[in-house]
Each structure stands twice: as structure tokens, then as C-alpha cells.
Amino acid sequence: MSRILDQRILFLVISFSASVQSTKVLSEWKKCGDPECEKAMSRVQATTDYLGPDCRYLNFKTGEEIMVYSKLSRENENLWTGSKGKDFGYFPRDAVKVEEVLIGEEVEVPTKETDFLCLHEDKYTSE
């Protein structure tokens, strides 16, 4: 009986750790095309296949087109945020090449807690 209880507690600890990791703030700042981060900044093309580590990341195949809406800045400049069809998420900037720049000037704004949650079927989750 105690072994089953120990296994359940271990499972809960592992589940909680995964949840905390998936809601981790990736950066305190981001750059956008406007203060609300609603305008697309650029159109890029994937130069490699990419499979993200969790639901906050955008998965894509080489050659797919992605619209970029923000770029993390300061402590984590390697991650950009964009969409491909209905999918939206983070991806490494070195996995794409810029095809077209759509804005003239970037605006740096603080990130929000909701920037780092997963969006599934119009609902936010923390994995």
C-alpha cells in the first residue's frame, strides 16, 4: 500500500514540475511592430524542421511560411513568436530566414504572464 502511495506522490511531483517548467517566463521583454503586438513584423520561411519542447512552441517543416508578431529581447533574443495557419508559438530565429519585413520600427514592451501559456481551442492552459 505504501509503495502505491509513494508512486502516486512521485507522479504528482513530476507532473507539477512539468507544469511549472511549461509556464516559465522566457523573457521579461519583447519587441513588436506596435505596442499591442498585433501587427505582423515580418514574413519568414523555415530553413529547417522544428519540433518545440512543449505546447508554447510552434512546430514547422522546412519551407513553411510563418508570420512573426514578436521577438523576445534582452535576456533571450533567440526566440521569436509567430503563426502558421491556426498554430501560434515560439521558435528559434536561426530556424528561419526573413523573406519580407513588414514594419519599419520595432517597439520594446514588457511581456505578460499570458505570453507564456498554451493556447488550445481558444482556452489558455498551463500544461
From TrEMBL:
A cellular component annotation (GO) from this entry: endoplasmic reticulum exit site
Main location (coarse class): endoplasmic reticulum
Signal peptide: 1-22
Pfam families, per the entry: SH3_2
Subcellular location: Endoplasmic reticulum membrane
Entry-linked InterPro entries: cTAGE_MIA/OTOR (IPR051500), SH3-like_dom_sf (IPR036028), SH3_domain (IPR001452)
Gene Ontology biological-process entries: endoplasmic reticulum to Golgi vesicle-mediated transport; protein secretion; vesicle cargo loading
Keywords: Coiled coil, Endoplasmic reticulum, Glycoprotein, Membrane, SH3 domain, Signal, Transmembrane, Transmembrane helix
Domain of life: Eukaryota
Subunit-level organization: Interacts with MIA3. Interacts with the COPII coat subunits SEC23A, SEC23B and maybe SEC24C. Interacts with PREB; recruits PREB to endoplasmic reticulum exit sites. Interacts with APOB.
Family stated for the protein in its record: Belongs to the MIA/OTOR family.
Protein's name according to its UniProt entry: Melanoma inhibitory activity protein 2
Gene: Mia2
